[in-house]
UniProtKB/TrEMBL annotation:
Keywords: Signal
One Pfam family it belongs to: SGL
Every SMP-30/Gluconolactonase/LRE-like region domain range: 200-330
Chain coiled-coil ranges: none
UniProt cross-references to InterPro entries, sorted A to Z: 6-blade_b-propeller_TolB-like, Oryzine_lactonohydrolase, SGL
Gene3D superfamilies: TolB, C-terminal domain
Origin: domain of life: Eukaryota
Name assigned to this protein: SMP-30/Gluconolactonase/LRE-like region domain-containing protein
Residues in the signal sequence: 1-19
Length: 383
C-alpha cells in the first residue's frame, strides 16, 4: 500500500456551488450517511467493499471520479482534472506497485503483484517490472479509456529483481525493494539502470547476517539522502517466503557508510513509507488488516502513522494520522483531514506523481493516468 493510498471529514460548503466544480468532480456530503437506514454486519460489508453513499450509484461515482469532501481538494484538482485508464488486463494483476518516474528517460516504471494465483508469480516465477512512455500517455489523456493505445513494455532486469514491490529514484537510477523468493532468494535492495540493458546491482541483502522477511516499500529522505525501507511479511503470507525470522520494522540505510539501523518498529504489518516534501515528517502505513492468503482481520490496523523526523534523521513522536476505510486513492491534508477521493471503483495499492500535475495509479488489473493542478514531491538523490 504505497502510501502508496490518499482519503476527509466533509464540511458541506453552501458557498461553493456545483457550478464551480470541475466537470469530472462532485461534492460528497458526509451528513447524508451519518445515519443509515440499515447498517450491514461485517460479514456483508467491511473493508473489502467500496462504500457507495446514499443517492449515488457505481455509475455516478465513476462518471465524476474526483470526489470532493472539502473545498481544500479543489486547489489540488484545479479547473480541469482528468482520469484516464491507460491499460488493463483480464485477471493478471500486472499493475500493482513500485510506481516510479524516471525523468532521465521520461518513462514510468511499475511492478506486477507477486503471489496471487492469477499472476502465477511468487515462489516459482518472479513478478515482472514494466514501463510505459509518459509522452505516449500524454497523447491519449483526453480519453476516458485509452486501453490498448499505450505500449506496456516488460523490463528484463539483469540480474532480475526477485519479486520487486517498491521503488524510488536514486542517483540517476532506480532502487527497488525485492520481497525475495523461497529460502535462498533473499530479500534485497537492488539498484537498476533505467535504460537498457537494465543492469542491476545488489546494495543490501541482510541485517548483520540475518535475512529480511519481505521488503516492501522504499523512499529517499529529501535532506539526508539516506534510504528508508519497510520489511513486512507478505512473501510469507502469500506462500513464497519462509516464516519470519526477524521483527517487522522500518530500516534506514546509508549506502556510502554501509550503516543499517532500525528506524521504527511496533507494526502489525508495515507497508508504505514516505516523507513530507520538507523531510520534517515521515508517514508509515500498517496494513495488518490484510493477511494475504489468510484473508482479512478487520480488527487489525489499516492505518497511517506520522512521525517527526529529528535533525539526525531518526524518527520520533509517532501519532495516528489517518485510518483508511477502503483501498482507494484518498487525499488528506497535512493535519489528517480527508479532503477528497479519486474514485476507481476498485482497490489501488500504489500511485505516484510522474512530473508536475501528473499521476500514475496502479489498480492491479488496470493502470490509470490522472492530471491535476497539484505537483508531486520528486526526490532525486545526487550524493
Amino acid at each position: 500500500m504505497a502510501l502508496a493510498t490518499l482519503s476527509t471529514c466533509f464540511l458541506l460548503l453552501a458557498s461553493v456551488s456545483s457550478a464551480k466544480l470541475p466537470a469530472q468532480a462532485q461534492f460528497i456530503d458526509q451528513r447524508v450517511f451519518n445515519v443509515l437506514n440499515t447498517t450491514l454486519p461485517p460479514s456483508q460489508f467491511n473493508a473489502t467493499n467500496v462504500f457507495i453513499p446514499p443517492g449515488s450509484t457505481e455509475d455516478s461515482l465513476t462518471k465524476q471520479p474526483f470526489h470532493v469532501y472539502d473545498k481544500e481538494f479543489l486547489k489540488i484538482l484545479g479547473n480541469n482534472p482528468t482520469l484516464t485508464r491507460i491499460a488493463r488486463s483480464a485477471k493478471n494483476p500486472l499493475y500493482h506497485e513500485a510506481v516510479v518516474w524516471s525523468n532521465r528517460t521520461n518513462e514510468v516504471f511499475f511492478a506486477q503483484n507477486a503471489g496471487p494465483p492469477a499472476a502465477g508469480t511468487g515462489l516459482n516465477k518472479s513478478a515482472i517490472i514494466e514501463k510505459i512512455s509518459l509522452a505516449q500517455v500524454a497523447a491519449v489523456s483526453n480519453r476516458t479509456d485509452a486501453s490498448g493505445l499505450v505500449d506496456v513494455i516488460t523490463v528484463n532486469a539483469t540480474p532480475p529483481v526477485l519479486n520487486a514491490n517498491g521503488a524510488t529514484n536514486f542517483r540517476g537510477q532506480i532502487v527497488y525493494t525485492s520481497e525475495g523468493q523461497g529460502d535462498h532468494g533473499a530479500p534485497a535492495l537492488y539498484l537498476m539502470n533505467p535504460e537498457e540493458p537494465y543492469n542491476t546491482t545488489v546494495l543490501l541483502n541482510n541485517f548483520f547476517g540475518r535475512q529480511f522477511n519481505s521488503l516492501n516499500d522504499i523512499v529517499v529522505h529529501p535532506q539526508n539522502k539516506d534510504i528508508y525501507f519497510t520489511d513486512s511479511l507478505y512473501g510469507y503470507l502469500q506462500d513464497f517466503r519462509p516464516a519470519p525470522g526477524i521483527q517487522l520494522q522500518v530500516y534506514r540505510f546509508n549506502p556510502d557508510t554501509g550503516a543499517v539501523t532500525v528506524a521504527a518498529d511496533g507494526f502489525t504489518l508495515p507497508n508504505g513509507f514516505t516523507f513530507s516534501p520538507d523531510g520534517k515528517h515521515a508517514y508509515a502505513t500498517d496494513t495488518g488488516i490484510n493477511q494475504g492468503f489468510w484473508g482479512y482481520n478487520f480488527s487489525r490496523p489499516a492505518s497511517i502513522y506520522r512521525y517527526d523526523v529529528a535533525d539526525d534523521g531518526t524518527l520520533e513522536n509517532r501519532k495516528t494520522f489517518a485510518f483508511v476505510n477502503s483501498g482507494v486513492p484518498d487525499v488528506w491534508n497535512p493535519h489528517g483531514k480527508l479532503i477528497g477521493k479519486i474514485y476507481l471503483g476498485t482497490t489501488s495499492a500504489n500511485f505516484n506523481f510522474v512530473g508536475n500535475g501528473k499521476m500514475v495509479i496502479c489498480a492491479e488489473t488496470s493502470l490509470y493516468y490522472a492530471t491535476l493542478a497539484a505537483g508531486g514531491n520528486y526526490v532525486e538523490s545526487e550524493m
